[in-house]
Design brief:
Layout (H helix, E strand, L loop, with lengths): L2 E5 L2 E3 L5 E8 L7 E7 L6 E6 L5 E3 L7 E6 L4 E6 L8 E9 L2 E5 L3 E5 L1
Parallel strand pairs: 2-11
Antiparallel strand pairs: 1-3, 3-8, 4-5, 4-9, 5-6, 7-8, 9-10, 9-11
């Protein structure tokens, strides 16, 4: 059973940067497609970025050119580099794994506040 722990969130000014990390335990992440989602209160969780086991990536239109997802399989860690942050990026950010046609395992989230 995969356990995920996010960190790196915080408060930052508009235009600033943050780097989120997600450390996995219980399994190796190298074989998983992984992703970052975010959620604002009273809104549905939305996909931000994804990365396949082969390293190919995809992004929501709202973050393209500003966010970069990456992974270090040796350290069992997923990253999200967020640059040029906007107030609308304020949310609780989650990392997750994809298997058996669904996003299966979720961390507890890390809060990002941009003001």
């Amino acid at each position: 059973h995969v356990q995920l722990v996010e960190s790196g969130g915080g408060s930052v000014q508009v235009g600033g940067s943050l780097r989120l990390s997600c450390v996995a335990s219980g399994d190796t992440i190298g074989r998983y497609c992984m992703g970052w989602f975010r959620q604002i209160p009273d809104r549905e969780r939305e996909g931000v970025a994804g990365i396949e086991s082969d390293g190919s990536t995809s992004y929501a239109d709202s973050v393209k050119g500003r966010f970069t997802i990456s992974r270090d399989n040796a350290k069992n860690t997923l990253f999200l580099q967020m640059n040029s942050l906007r107030s609308e990026d304020t949310a609780l950010y989650y990392c997750t794994t994809f298997s058996s046609s669904a996003w299966r395992h979720w961390g507890q989230g890390t809060q990002v506040t941009v003001s």
